[in-house]
């Protein structure tokens, strides 16, 4: 073989940077309804191609088509739309509250609402999610009170976490929502452990692990895949590929691999890609994976192909690293508009009713916000006590902490 | 009363705990069928089945991370990290997750796990089988840290750790597995079968966390030690003829400050010893606490004897290990100060 000359170092680059014209021509979008729906006990080797395709249900005309369609009735879809609009409205209000100085930090879901809202409806009560910071739809769709979320965001006197956690790092065992760490990928292997425990206990509950595209580079992601495949743990392994890890495009974590879903293939784990902006597709695939887990068929890896339309957090400015119009060019559209159009197409919804619903939801969110703010915001009104800071490190306070609490004068 | 080696006592603790509570699960590398490289889990898989004692992939972060998930579910995992030197991949899971879960979720989720690991040197294990990383854990709020020094304590403390509602790091001084090693590497070790602390009662008993034990009564100087160094300190006292009081801390976090202060106020002098490297070692915390709490009783500076600040060497093991000669010199210097 001919000498290729000196070695060259390779650093992947996104297609376009600020100032350029957004271009997603490299993202192959299969037609809605074109990907088959295998039986849940399918031999994983026979569906390896699904890790390179995208399961889609809603087409451009707003129709639900193909083998993954037809699982949800009109009422369930209307409820799903309500959840997504609620989450979007909630985000907008909390984003604004952060800008008004009522809290230190916020992370919104703009463009990714379908992923967590639809997924929650595929689970049963008692199942446990190990979420990242961008799955609050799991709480909204499970009826967790918004005012509790806001109390946590404001770290006020009614904060269920006593002011100890960064805003949006919720915890609710009752609603199947494991305490968010804020450290990345750690929760992925914990979800597998929870699922192993459920199997060890001959239970029927399953776990769901969550991670973003960027964090799949963490070793805990790989540890989770090893444990999940080795012990056939009843867990759904979710990867939300929203294209951006703060300023780092997904190609930095993905490298030369075809897709994030394909990471599962080496472990013999059935690995699917799904249109993350398609409520029906997300729900159908989540349901398939959950059924596999419950049937002792083991883990499923699901990559949700979506786009983070907003900033990473309130501390981030995406205009510094990607074209401003990039989200408009995203070929999978907006999850709220797509479900809305589908429901209008079905004749069970209209633009007018949608506008009215948006107004009603805004009122509900504002009412919750008023109630939460009556308990204080980060820098004003009621707040958790200094004493709370010392409590709960251990079940029983050890002598050294008691001494320090006394030193602090509380 | 039956006599057991430290390994047998540790195995018995897990056996008793698994027998009493079906939520107790034991796993780690080589832990299942084989029973662990030190045989601490030998027979447990055969007795309790593969669901409760099994082999894990070589992934410490996976072992501890999955244990945290199991604990959140409601089980009580007691996992083995094959050597303390291998725990670092699991450090994030221990520090950022296990230690903080109760606090950050305000008790919504808790983490009653035990992470067992052989610690310390003296076996020609080189830098990857000899480290003493206890200070990396005592620095973390939310953890409890135990270093037993004998079979009787090891069993009672391990059962207490498994029953504890919070995460416990259980460091087993591997040089003590077979007998009370006193640092005289050229002499044979008395086996636990001939030592009174090798007496390990059958069945269930616990030793409360946070309680030290006085191993040698004395009035001239207090030696604070744990693990293998308890025997090194005792040997140093015998060989120098110094009337030293040797305190075996047993639990480093939470610490039995009361016992330490009572002893140092009595003796007026204090030597802190550990195998781990000196700088920022647990001895620094002990020395600070002694001067904070006993300053007006001290007649000499608090001395520290520790491993040198180098990686743990292989050929030079006995030049590195803080043996009875070095501890003895510190005792003499502290008395002469």
Concise description?
Chain A has 410 residues and is of the alpha/beta class. Chain A is built from 13 helices and 7 strands.
Written description of the protein model:
- The complex is a heterodimer of chains A (410) and B (337).
- In chain A, 36% of the residues lie in helices and 8% in strands.
- With 410 residues, chain A is α/β, with parallel strands linked by helices.
- Chain A folds into two domains: 44-379, Rossmann fold (3-Layer(aba) Sandwich); 386-410, no CATH class.
- In chain A, the strands form two sheets. In chain A, strands 1-2-3-7-6 form a five-stranded parallel beta sheet, sandwiched between helices.
- In chain A, strand 2, helix 6 (219-231) and strand 3 form a beta-alpha-beta unit.
- In chain A, helix 1 crosses helix 2, helix 2 (113-120) packs across helix 8 and helix 4 packs across helix 11 (351-374).
- Chain A is globular, with a radius of gyration of 22 Å.
- Chain A starts with 73 loop residues before the first helix and ends with a helix.
- The mean pLDDT of chain A is 96.
- Chain B has a seven-stranded mixed beta sheet, with helices on both faces.
- The longest helix of chain B has 15 residues, at 6-20.
- Chain B has twelve helices and twelve strands.
- In chain B, helix 7 (151-163) links the parallel strand 5 (144-146) and strand 6 (168-173).
- Chain B has helices spanning 6-20, 44-48, 60-73, 91-98, 101-104, 134-138, 151-163, 229-240, 257-267, 282-294, 317-320, 324-336; strands at residues 24-28, 53-55, 76-80, 114-119, 144-146, 168-173, 213-216, 221-225, 244-248, 251-253, 270-277, 303-307.
- Chain B is globular.
- The model of chain B has no long low-confidence stretch (mean pLDDT 98).
- By secondary structure, chain B is α/β, with parallel strands linked by helices.
- Chain B folds into two domains: 6-198, Thiamin diphosphate (ThDP)-binding fold, Pyr/PP domains (Rossmann fold); 213-336, Rossmann fold (3-Layer(aba) Sandwich).
- Classes of the chains: A alpha/beta (410), B alpha/beta (337).
- Chains A and B meet through helix 5, helix 6 and helix 13 of A and helix 3, helix 4 and helix 5 of B.
């Amino acid at each position: 073989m001919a000498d290729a000359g000196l070695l060259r170092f390779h650093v992947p680059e996104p297609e376009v940077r600020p100032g350029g014209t957004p271009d997603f021509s490299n993202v192959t979008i299969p037609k809605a309804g074109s990907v088959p729906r295998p039986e849940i006990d399918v031999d994983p080797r026979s569906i390896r191609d699904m890790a390179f395709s995208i399961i889609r249900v809603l087409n451009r005309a707003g129709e639900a088509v193909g083998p993954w369609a037809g699982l949800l009735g009109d009422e369930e879809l209307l409820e799903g739309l309500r959840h997504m609009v609620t989450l979007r409205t909630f985000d907008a209000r909390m984003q604004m509250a952060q800008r008004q100085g009522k809290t230190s930090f916020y992370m919104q879901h703009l463009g990714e609402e379908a992923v967590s809202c639809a997924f929650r409806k595929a689970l049963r009560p008692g199942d446990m999610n190990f979420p990242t910071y961008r799955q609050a739809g799991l709480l909204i769709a499970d009826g967790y009170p918004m005012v509790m979320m806001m109390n946590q965001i404001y770290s006020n006197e009614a904060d269920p976490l006593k002011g100890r956690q960064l805003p949006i790092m919720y915890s609710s065992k009752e609603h199947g929502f494991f305490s968010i760490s804020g450290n990345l990928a750690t929760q992925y292997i914990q979800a597998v452990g929870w699922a192993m425990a459920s199997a060890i206990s001959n239970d029927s509950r399953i776990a769901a692990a969550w991670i973003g595209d960027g964090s799949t580079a963490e070793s805990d992601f790989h540890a989770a895949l090893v444990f999940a495949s080795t012990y056939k743990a009843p867990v759904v392994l979710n990867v939300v590929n929203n294209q951006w890890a703060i300023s780092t495009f997904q190609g930095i974590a993905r490298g030369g691999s075809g897709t994030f879903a394909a990471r599962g293939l080496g472990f013999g784990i059935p690995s699917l890609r799904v249109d993350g902006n398609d409520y029906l597709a997300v729900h159908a695939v989540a349901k398939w994976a959950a059924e596999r887990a419950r049937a002792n068929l083991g883990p499923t890896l699901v990559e949700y192909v979506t786009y983070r339309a907003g900033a990473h957090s309130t501390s981030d400015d995406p205009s510094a690293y990607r074209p401003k119009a990039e989200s408009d060019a995203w070929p999978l559209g907006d999850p709220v508009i797509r479900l809305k159009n589908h429901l209008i197409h079905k004749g069970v919804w209209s633009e007018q009713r949608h506008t009215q619903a948006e107004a009603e939801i805004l009122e509900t969110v504002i009412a919750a916000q008023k109630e939460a703010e009556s308990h204080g915001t980060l820098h004003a009104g009621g707040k958790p006590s200094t004493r709370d800071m010392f409590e709960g490190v251990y079940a029983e306070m050890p002598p050294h902490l008691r001494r320090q609490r006394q030193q602090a004068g509380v | 009363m039956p006599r057991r080696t430290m390994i047998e006592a540790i195995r018995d603790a897990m056996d008793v705990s698994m027998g009493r509570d079906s939520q107790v699960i034991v796993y780690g590398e080589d832990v299942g069928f084989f029973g662990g490289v030190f045989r601490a889990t030998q027979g447990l898989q055969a007795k309790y089945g593969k669901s409760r004692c099994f082999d894990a992939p070589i992934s410490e972060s996976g072992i501890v991370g999955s244990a945290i998930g199991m604990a959140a579910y409601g089980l009580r995992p007691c996992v083995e990290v094959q050597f303390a030197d291998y725990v670092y991949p699991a450090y994030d899971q221990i520090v950022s997750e296990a230690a903080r879960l109760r606090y950050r979720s305000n008790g919504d989720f808790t983490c009653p796990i035990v992470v067992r690991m052989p610690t310390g040197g003296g076996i020609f294990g080189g830098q990857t089988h000899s480290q003493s990383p206890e200070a990396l854990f005592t620095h973390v709020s939310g953890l409890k840290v135990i270093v037993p020094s004998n079979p009787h304590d090891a069993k009672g403390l391990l059962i207490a750790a498994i029953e504890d509602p919070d995460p416990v790091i259980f460091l087993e001084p591997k040089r003590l597995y077979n007998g009370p090693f006193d640092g005289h590497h050229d002499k044979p070790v008395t086996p636990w079968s001939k030592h009174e602390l090798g007496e390990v009662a059958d069945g269930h008993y616990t030793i409360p966390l946070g309680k030290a034990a006085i191993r040698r009564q004395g009035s001239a100087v207090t030696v604070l030690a744990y693990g293998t160094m308890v025997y090194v300190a005792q040997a140093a006292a015998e060989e120098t003829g110094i009337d030293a009081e040797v305190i075996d801390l047993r639990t480093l976090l939470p610490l039995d400050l009361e016992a330490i202060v009572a002893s140092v106020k009595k003796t007026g002098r204090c030597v802190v010893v550990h195998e781990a490297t000196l700088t920022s070692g647990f001895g620094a915390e002990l020395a600070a606490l002694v001067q904070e709490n006993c300053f007006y009783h001290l007649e000499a500076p608090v001395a520290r004897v520790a491993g040198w600040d180098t990686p743990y060497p292989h050929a030079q093991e006995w030049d590195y290990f803080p043996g009875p000669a070095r501890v003895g010199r510190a005792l003499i210097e502290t008395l002469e100060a």
